[in-house]
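Researcher: Sequence recovery benchmark, item below. Answer with residues only.
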């Protein structure tokens, strides 16, 4: 997907694709070091090299999910706020699916026994805002539907296993 964007997007639009990576990574650094806004959690080693207790890959994952969901969910909707809210709902649903697997595979762990509700509220609010901030730079990427299908199948199979 990154190769597709490098080849097809204008330099102006490329900035709006970098923004969710930076915003996602920054909010995760705040989260892992303060417990706000998601709740108290730590990352394991499974996501690779970390800076400030946060894997560098996490910003890329924010971008990949937001970008893919926006492309898929905005096909027939004209309101940017409606699209952004739908992405917020979809991102939160994806987090509900990912959490049990991610914990089991040592992607991250929570201080408490269960995932705090603040995590899901934060996912919804931040995903909606990040999408709204970057929506003007989105172009339709034919890879987006495939990215989401592969991720959903992967995590669904792992959920059934764990």
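Model:
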């Amino acid at each position: 997907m990154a190769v597709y964007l490098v080849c097809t997007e204008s330099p102006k639009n490329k900035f709006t694709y970098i923004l969710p990576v930076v915003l996602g990574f920054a909010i995760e650094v705040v989260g892992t070091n303060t417990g706000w806004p998601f709740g108290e959690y730590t990352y394991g080693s499974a996501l690779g090299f970390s800076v400030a207790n946060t894997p560098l890959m996490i910003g890329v994952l924010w971008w990949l999910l937001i970008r893919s969901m926006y492309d898929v969910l905005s096909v027939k909707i004209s309101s940017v706020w409606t699209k952004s809210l739908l992405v917020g709902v979809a991102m939160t649903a994806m987090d509900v699916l990912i959490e049990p697997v991610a914990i089991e595979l040592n992607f991250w762990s929570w201080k408490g026994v269960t995932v705090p509700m603040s995590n899901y509220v934060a996912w919804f609010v931040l995903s909606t805002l990040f999408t709204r901030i970057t929506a003007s730079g989105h172009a339709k990427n034919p890879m987006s539907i495939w990215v989401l299908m592969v991720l959903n199948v992967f995590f669904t199979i792992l959920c059934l296993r764990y």
